[in-house]
From TrEMBL:
The keyword Cell membrane applies. Residues 108-322 form the ABC transmembrane type-1 domain. It is a multi-pass membrane protein. InterPro entries: ABC_transporter_permease (IPR051393), MetI-like (IPR000515), MetI-like_sf (IPR035906). Its main location: membrane. It is found in: Cell membrane. This is Carbohydrate ABC transporter permease. Residues 1-38 are annotated as: Disordered. CDD domains: TM_PBP2.
Length: 335
């Protein structure tokens, strides 16, 4: 009898608590705050950021978006620039022509070789120099300026400089043959594909190290000194501190530098045009120099636009793939 009474009381309490909960849930919610009226002063306040963005967006649309859309349109036509001439729609013929063109694949291969030969040295040497310049010394600002000076130097100037350095009677041959006696004869650097690519890649590495150095140097400034001090107290040597403290700290900068250098490597143009002109016989052409030749030498703007669109899609896909790869790796490390 006592157990039945206890159960009944428990059931009654449960019913009371349930009814109380329902009454609380059924109670009216507090009224929402009324929205502020969109007065003229508030509208002006909200529009200020967009007014600041408007000039930049206008330039971006006019200089980037509109030419890109125009190039995409031209790639589907046998585009004529002569006044009154009719541009004939050819569909995907220009793209089919590109994929069946051996010289396009050669130029794409040269672009890939340039990217693979220039990106790793710029990352490794840039990080190494940034690590050295992180230490405070009286000569630190001077070395920063010296390493960054090639970055701000005109591509035209340094391309012509390297063209003369690697000429048959240039400084490179003089140093290697006449001064150091490392070669039995002078090398005609710009007359064959392999040696010409060496000269172009050397120019790309020399000019780009300073940029990656500055990015890594900025990232290193944010590494707390307490982490390195703690690693030192734990008995870690210099290499162990670099691998366990410095590298993880600059990993976001490494992702940024890698993506930007890959994009820049595939878009190499000025150095090839001025150092070799795509020669000999087009053997050092890259995609952009081949596109330039087709569009502005042979006036085949439809085919040149198709080459530009293919390169843009390739660069976009590689950039997305790199970002996902780095993101997955960072997720695995955190796990």
């Amino acid at each position: 009898m006592t157990s039945i009474t206890t159960d009944a009381s428990l059931v009654g309490r449960a019913a009371e608590s349930d009814s109380a909960a329902r009454s609380r849930s059924a109670s009216p919610k507090p009224p929402a705050k009324p929205r502020r009226p969109l007065t003229g002063a508030r509208l002006r306040t909200l529009s200020v950021p967009y007014l600041f963005l408007l000039p930049g967006m206008a330039v971006f649309l006019a200089v980037i978006i509109y030419p890109a859309l125009q190039a995409l349109q031209m790639s589907f036509f046998d585009w004529k620039i002569v006044a009154g001439a009719v541009s004939r729609f050819v569909g995907f013929d220009n793209y089919a022509r590109a994929f069946a063109d051996p010289h396009f694949w050669l130029s794409l291969q040269n672009s890939g070789i340039y990217m693979l030969a220039t990106v790793p040295p710029q990352i490794i040497l840039g990080l190494f120099i940034a690590t050295l310049l992180k230490r405070k010394s009286p000569s630190q600002p001077i070395f920063r300026v010296l390493f960054y000076l090639p970055v701000v130097t005109s591509w035209v100037v340094v391309s012509l400089l390297f063209k003369y350095l690697f000429a048959d009677s240039g400084l490179v041959n003089f140093t290697l043959h006449d001064f150091l006696h490392l070669m039995s004869s002078d090398v005609s650097w710009l007359s064959t594909r392999g040696t010409a690519l060496v000269a172009i890649c050397a120019l790309g590495v020399w000019k780009g190290i300073g940029w990656s150095m500055m990015i890594f140097l900025a990232a290193l400034q944010g590494v707390p000194e307490s982490l390195e001090e703690a690693a030192t107290m734990d008995g870690a040597n210099r290499w162990q501190r670099f691998r366990a403290v410095t590298l993880p700290a600059v990993s976001p900068a490494t992702v940024f530098v890698t993506v930007m250098l890959v994009i820049g490597g595939l878009n190499v143009f000025t150095s090839v045009l001025l150092v070799t002109g795509g020669g000999p016989v087009g053997q050092t052409d890259v995609v952009l120099s081949y596109m330039y030749t087709q569009a502005f030498t042979y006036l085949d703007f439809g085919y040149g636009s198709a080459l530009a669109v293919i390169l843009a899609v390739l660069v976009f896909v590689l950039a997305i793939a790199q970002l996902r790869l780095f993101r997955d790796r960072s997720g695995e490390e955190l796990a």
